[in-house]
Task: structure prediction
Amino acid sequence: MICTKTRGTPQHDIFSFRRLAATGYGRRPAITPRPFSSRPIRSKRERVVNPVLERLYRDNFVVHKNGRRKPVCPPGLTLERGDYLFQLVRARRPTLTLEIGFAYGISTLHIAEALRRNGRGHHIVIDPHQRTRFDGLGLEHVKEAGLSSWITFHEEAAELCLPRLVQEGLRLDLAFDDSGHLFDHVITEFVFLAQLLRTGGVLVVDDAGLPGVGRACDFVAANRPDFEDVSVAPAPGLLRRLLPGESLPPPPVNARGKPRMRLFRKARDDDPRDWSDYKPF
Ligand SMILES: C[S@@+](CC[C@H](N)C(=O)[O-])C[C@H]1O[C@@H](n2cnc3c(N)ncnc32)[C@H](O)[C@@H]1O
Result:
């Protein structure tokens, strides 16, 4: 389902989420999940998971309506990171996922394809610039891949859309933040994503190497006791003790061993800080 809400329109019918919830979030026959390895994904293991992604990665350009060619990656996720999201969604089998930052739809195609293979779930996508900057091509790619019924799209800035979703009582199992990358935007989005995520839910933040994104993630890691930073693989055996019954593979790393994405797990429902709490980070 694609609901293209624009800034300032009267608000979104929780409508479909209720309907979706009643029908088990569009549960369909599942495909047996591939076991998730806990070792970081390396380039040779990455797979292109549908023909539309295959074409977009191969050509690495799209043609806008004015005839101009534009690259797909960047802004799109590399195959390594897209495959990481795909495998994370396959392994965790979430009911409701959300991402901020759609562009030409690369990350959405990975997440929605994983939901389709899981046979369950629904994906919410937020981006104010889909038609103005990306000519609606992300939506076209999702449609071409036959994945439209797996997503709800909001053509709206995250800082306006997320608070409304909080008020609507949405509860997410997985969120992916790949939007404006400015420090204050990442923090703002985190504040609302923290409320939307259910305990045990995970947040993936892309472009952790960018200073604004990295520092915002450092703030969360140092100052939010309700979130665990699980971006780096713990010593063997420790992960299992810390997160019984869970498998949270660490995100891909760069040549210096630094995570390209940050991964947080919501460990408790309340934020226990006092009003004066602040840890330098
Ligand atoms: C790096 S691109 C996203 C790439 C996409 N995840 C992919 O893999 O193809 C960043 C996106 O963030 C969007 N963006 C910028 N500011 C935003 C905001 N305030 N709220 C939501 N999205 C925003 C831009 O329009 C752009 O599409």
The pocket of S-adenosylmethionine is lined by residues 75-77, 100-107, 126-129, 133, 157-159, 178-180, 185 (CB under 6 Å). The beta strands are 5-6, 61-63, 69-71, 96-100, 122-126, 151-155, 172-177, 197-205, 227-229, 262-266. The domain at 3-25+45-232+242-266 is CATH 3.40.50.150 (Rossmann fold). The chain has one domain: 3-25+45-232+242-266.
